[in-house]
């Protein structure tokens, strides 16, 4: 998995099948992590969202505390508790 920040995409390359899949979002993807029950947590320019495995936005976790015109999320991760 990797993010194309400026294109607002999450890419997945599945080595055994050589399949590349791309999830597209409506704004820049600064960082993301896989969720234990499937889907992702995705930090975009305006907010952090929980998504399903297809990238469909399910629930907003929080808004960007900064001015989204000047700053976006970047280089995030999760700890051992998720």
Structure description:
With 82 residues, the protein is mainly β. Helix content is 0%, strand content 46%. The chain has strands spanning 2-4, 9-14, 19-24, 29-34, 40-44, 47-51, 57-63. Strands 4-5-6-7 form a 4-stranded antiparallel β-sheet, with no helix packed on it. A hairpin with a 2-residue loop joins strand 5 (40-44) and strand 6 (47-51). It is globular and about 40 Å long. The chain starts with a strand and ends in a 19-residue tail after the last strand.
The major sheet is characterized as:
4 strands, antiparallel
By DSSP (H or I, 4+ residues per run), the number of helices equals: 0
Classify the secondary structure makeup into a structural class: mainly beta
Strand fraction equals over 45%
Radius of gyration, rounded? 13 Å
Distance between the termini: 17 Å
Sheet with the most strands: spatial strand order? 4-5-6-7
Structural shape: globular
Helix proportion: under 10%
E-strand count: 7
Low-confidence stretches: none
Compressed to H and E, one letter per element, the order equals: EEEEEEE
Q: Provide mean pLDDT, rounded.
A: 94
Give the helices and strands, then pairings.
Elements: E1 2-4, E2 9-14, E3 19-24, E4 29-34, E5 40-44, E6 47-51, E7 57-63
Antiparallel strand pairs: 1-2, 2-3, 4-5, 5-6, 6-7
Question: What's a quick, concise take on this entry?
Answer:
The chain is mainly beta. The chain is 0% helix and 46% strand.
Distinctive features:
single chain, 82 residues, 4-stranded antiparallel β-sheet, 46% strand
